[in-house]
TrEMBL record:
InterPro entries: Kinase-like_dom_sf, NEK_Ser/Thr_kinase, Prot_kinase_dom, Tyr_kinase_AS. It comes from the Bacteria. It comes from Promicromonospora soli. This is non-specific serine/threonine protein kinase. The keyword Cytoplasm does not apply. CDD domains: STKc_PknB_like. It is an enzyme of class 2 (transferase).
Length: 293
C-alpha cells in the first residue's frame, strides 16, 4: 500500500497529484503547492518524527541554501499521516523530465550519446563538488541514477543532484563518515567498513553511474556476494569494449573513478569533474580540426 493517495490534501498547502516512484528509503509524489505550483514530495518509509526528518535533512537544507544550479532545492520538511503511521516528508523542486534512470531508459534504441553522457557527468560532479568543498566535506553517500534529476534549460541538459537525505559530514580528522547507500553503487571500502564513506566514495558512485550510462551495464553485478573481497576483484571490462563510441581516454577516466584503492581514485567530485571537462575540451578540439571526428 502506498503512503499517499492521489487527490489527498497535506495540510492547507499541498494536494497530491500523482505517484512518481520509490526507492529503498522513500516514495516520491508530484504535488501542487497552493501558491507556488508543482513541487515534488519525498515521504520516508521509516522516518516518523519531525525531529528525525529535520536531522536527516540538515545537510540537504544547507546545500539547498547555497543555490547551486546543479543541486536540487529543498523547500519544506514536515510529517504526514499515512496508512503506515506518521511519516516524515520534505518537498523539493519538481523536474518534469524525471531522473537519470528515466533518461537512460528513454534511449531504448541504443546507448546514451557519449557527449550527452559526459555533459551529465560533468554537471553531476559540479553539484557534488559543492558538498565536497564544504568544511568539513559533506558526502552524499547515495549517488545513483534515481537520485540525479535531468531536465532542460532552453533545450540544453541541466542536471540536479537530489536526495541528500543520507548526506553526512565526514570526520574532520579521518575524512570518513558512516557507510550507507545502495549496494551496487557503494565503494569497496564503504562495503567493508562501517566508517568507510568519503568524498572518494562518492566519486566511485559517479564512476558506477558513468559506466551504466555508457554501457547499459553495472561494472559489477555481484557486490553483495563479494563484500570482503571487493578490493581484490579484477577491474571491470573497459567501457570501450562494450561501446565503441567510448574512446580509450574516456574509458580510462571512468575506470580511474572505479579504482578499488581509494588512494588511487580522484579525491573528490571536483577532481573527477576536471578530468571529464578536459576530455570534453579535447573532444571538441578534435571535432573542429580538419578531418577530425
Amino acid at each position: 500500500m502506498r503512503l499517499l493517495t492521489e487527490g489527498r490534501p497535506i495540510g492547507d498547502t499541498y494536494e497530491v497529484e500523482r505517484y512518481l516512484g520509490e526507492g529503498a528509503y522513500s516514495e516520491v509524489y508530484r504535488v501542487r503547492h497552493r501558491f507556488l505550483g508543482r513541487q515534488a514530495i519525498k515521504v520516508f518509509k521509516r522516518v516518523g518524527t519531525l525531529a528525525e526528518t529535520r536531522r536527516m535533512l540538515g545537510e540537504a537544507v544547507l546545500l539547498s541554501k547555497l543555490g547551486h544550479r546543479n543541486v536540487v532545492r529543498v523547500f519544506e520538511a514536515g510529517t504526514v499521516e499515512t496508512p503506515a503511521g506518521e511519516r516524515g516528508f520534505f518537498t523539493m523542486e519538481y523536474v518534469a523530465a524525471g531522473n537519470l534512470d528515466d533518461f537512460r531508459r528513454s534511449h531504448s534504441d541504443g546507448f546514451v550519446p557519449v557527449d550527452d553522457a559526459v555533459e551529465i557527468l560533468v554537471q553531476l560532479c559540479a553539484g557534488l563538488a559543492v558538498a565536497h568543498q564544504a568544511a568539513p566535506p559533506i558526502v552524499h553517500r547515495d549517488v545513483t541514477p534515481w537520485n540525479v534529476l535531468v531536465g532542460y534549460d532552453q533545450n540544453r541538459l541541466r542536471v540536479r543532484v537530489g536526495d541528500f537525505g543520507l548526506a553526512r559530514r565526514v570526520d574532520a580528522e579521518t575524512g570518513l563518515a558512516g557507510s550507507g547507500g545502495t549496494l551496487a553503487f557503494m565503494a569497496p571500502e564503504a562495503l567493508r567498513y562501517g566508517q568507510g564513506a568519503s568524498a572518494a566514495g562518492d566519486v566511485y558512485a559517479v564512476g558506477t553511474v558513468a559506466y551504466l550510462l555508457l554501457t547499459d551495464l553495472l561494472p559489477y553485478s555481484d557486490v553483495p556476494l563479494t563484500v570482503f573481497g571487493a578490493r581484490h576483484r579484477a577491474p571491470p571490462i573497459s567501457p570501450h569494449d562494450l561501446n565503441r563510441d567510448v574512446d580509450h581516454e574516456l574509458a580510462q577516466v571512468v575506470l580511474r573513478a572505479l579504482e578499488p584503492d581509494l588512494q588511487r581514485r580522484p579525491a573528490d567530485a571536483a577532481a573527477l569533474g576536471r578530468e571529464l571537462a578536459a576530455w570534453q575540451a579535447s573532444r571538441k578540439h578534435r571535432q573542429h580540426r580538419p578531418g577530425g571526428s
